[in-house]
Amino acid sequence: MAEGGTGGNQPPREPPHNLQGLLQMAVTAGNAEPAPLEPMSDERRQWLQQAMVEAFRGQLDEIEQMKECLRVLEAATPGTGSQESLEEAHSDRANREEAFDLLAELCENLDNAADFCKLEGMRLLAHRYLEHEEEQLRWRAAHLVGTCAQNVPKVQEQALALGCMRKLLRLLDHDSSEAVRIKALFAISCLVRAQEAGLLQFLRLDGFSVLMRAMQSNVQKLKVKSAFLLQNLLIDHPEQKETLCSMGMVQQLVALIRTEHSTFHEYVLGALCSLVTDFPQGVRECQQPELALEELLKERCQLLKEQEEFQEELDFCETLLRLCFQSQPDENNMDR
């Protein structure tokens, strides 16, 4: 057993308190063999120390970069009263866009995302940039909210407390820019997935209705991503199925399937499958004669047969036919 372990003759080692201590721990831990350690050469020791110093310095450098980006974003916007000021405003906007792009790259790192919020970055996004008059800055702000919030509960909580959900839903529902709407949806998904408080805000602000309207838009990418988010929310939160049925979600999804065929339909059918699985009320609504869903699904199966690129959509059609329109064993006919 390694010296210093619980079964050894010496007490457990204390964690290192400085760079030298960390270096010593690394050297000792690297000795997997019982043979005596050979002295480390000065050259090797210097190289290892320099590498560790650079690693610590790199983290500090990234914080300084974030601070500089925030200084750019916090600065007042120049006026546009003359040709010279127009040029200055154009340069200023370009600088702000570059600052956003660098922050988005840095905040892919979870520690940087947390530090960004400690530097009041999320507050700046919520209060100044999510509703900025410049489209290029709005979508970058929404993208940065989502990037920071991914899988970081503390960041999600701060964004929610600052009112980001309400503003993002408004952008998704009403913004004139496709890019802004798509990035707003990305940020919303980062605030509701695996985040109970985010889901509660989403529900309180009628988020499912906003999501349905996004699925009914003429922006293909937005439609696909909205349907995909709906499907995942139904999988993660089956308790919301009754709410969605009461909103007429089954009828609206079927209406979307009846539109001109596209790859979007795969995600709509996936959402409908998630809605009816283990949920008799959803099955009954699919069986309503006025929807003529059984005939629609059979026609779609014929259309998609032997087309490999539509295999998942075909699987969803066949699953819906089995769940809703094929006789089941007695034990499955009972409502749960």
Description:
With 336 residues, the protein is mostly helical. 71% of the residues lie in helices and 0% in strands. It contains 19 helices and no strands. It has helices at residues 19-29, 42-74, 83-106, 110-118, 121-129, 135-149, 153-161, 164-174, 178-192, 196-204, 207-215, 220-236, 241-246, 249-257, 264-276, 280-286, 293-304, 311-325, 330-333. Helix 2 crosses helix 3, helix 8 runs antiparallel to helix 9 (178-192) and helix 14 runs antiparallel to helix 15. The chain is globular and about 75 Å long. It starts with 18 loop residues before the first helix and ends with a helix.
SSE string: HHHHHHHHHHHHHHHHHHH
Structural class of the secondary elements? Answer: mainly alpha
Low-confidence stretches: 1-13, 328-336
Total beta strands: 0
What kind of oligomer do you see? single chain
Rounded to the nearest angstrom, the distance between the terminal CA atoms is 56 Å
Tally of contiguous helical segments: 19
Q: What is the CA-based Rg, rounded?
A: 28 Å
Helix content percent band? over 70%
Q: Bin the strand percentage.
A: under 5%
Query: Judging from the principal axes of the Cα atoms, what is the shape?
Result: globular
Estimate the mean pLDDT confidence. Answer: 86
The major sheet is characterized as: none
Structure keywords:
disordered N terminus; mainly alpha; globular; 19 helices; 336 residues; disordered C terminus
